[in-house]
Amino acid sequence: MAEQRKKNEDALLLALACGATVEAAAKQCQLSDRTIYRRMKEADFKARLQELRTDMVRRAAGMLTASANEAVRTLLLLQKDSTPAGVRLGAARAILEMGIKLREMVELETRMDELEALVKQQEQAGTRGAYPPIPRSIQDVL
Question: What is this structure's pTM?
């Protein structure tokens, strides 16, 4: 009995994490809407649902990252003179837009790492209330 409940709960979590409505998940898992709404109020269930959603997003991001080099290669191939001008223009725009966004993300990640290091340093030193000088790269953001 407990094994069946676990199986039903896993199916329900997967359905909800994949974006099913409560009504669709209820039908798919053979549960009532009320049961699902009640489960969604439980802290443990909400935490497991969020964890599953986070894992799905991480996996999708990993797949996108793995295919990024091939996508860039494709965009670069579209830059050849034999390609129609409209296609070359679209590829050029995509390359520039993605390049700028990637650079911004790397800069933000660097700044976040610096901030996290500062917080960790303060926690280790026990100086949470006292603030050390802010590094120059972080001042640029502020």
Answer: 0.56
User: Can you tell me the distance from the alpha carbon of 18 to that of 20, in angstroms, rounded to the nearest whole number?
Assistant: 6
Q: What is the mean pLDDT of each run of 10 residues along the chain (142 residues)?
A: 75 94 93 93 94 92 87 90 92 89 90 91 74 62 56
Query: Which tokens in the block code for residue 38?
Result: 């009640």
What is residue 1's DSSP assignment?
-
CA proximity to 9, closest of 34, 24, 35, 137: 35
DSSP summary character for residue 28: H
Report residue 128 as tokens. 């949470």
What type of residue is 137? S
CA distances from 117 to 25, 87, 108, 124, 136 (A): 43, 45, 14, 10, 14
CA 123 to mean position of chain CA atoms: 28
